[in-house]
Amino acid sequence: MSVSNELMQDLSILIEETGERIAEDYYFAFFEFLAKINLSDTDCPIPLKLWTAIAQAFADASGYRIGLQAELLEPIDGEPTRNRVVGHREVASVEPILFVQPAED
């Protein structure tokens, strides 16, 4: 079975849009949760263990694998207090452990 280039492009766009929407929804959900417990990333750095615990709760509730990424920064020449993002690195990931259903054979 052959799939046309146009169909592949449409499918690729749909997958990318869906991924962006899921990421955005969970981004806002994380920060809404932090606001509810009076914890803000700007006040002090949030320990990775706490981020991982929060991610685990979201993974369990959603069934999604969640990856936590850190930005790789480098200083901007001539501006000692500013940095630019040059990449990302996964620092932790969690798999849902509640309500996981094995795939049927």
Compact summary:
Helices cover 45% and strands 26% of the residues. By secondary structure, it is of the alpha+beta class. The protein has 2 domains: 1-40; 47-105, no CATH class.
> How many strands, what sense, and barrel or not for the largest sheet?
2 strands, antiparallel
Please tell me the total number of domains. Answer: 2
* SSE class: alpha+beta
Give the CA-based shape: extended
Count of extended strands: 2
What topology, given as strand order, has the largest sheet? 1-2
How would you describe the oligomerization state of the chains in this entry?
Answer: single chain
Q: Compute the gyration radius: what is it?
A: 18 Å
- Average pLDDT confidence is 82
State the main characteristics.
105 residues, alpha+beta, two-stranded antiparallel sheet, 2 strands
Describe this structure in words.
This protein is of the alpha+beta class. The protein folds into 2 domains: 1-40; 47-105, no CATH class. 45% of the residues lie in helices and 26% in strands. A two-stranded antiparallel ribbon has the order 1-2. Strand 1 and strand 2 (79-94) form a beta hairpin. The relative contact order is 0.12. The mean pLDDT is 82.
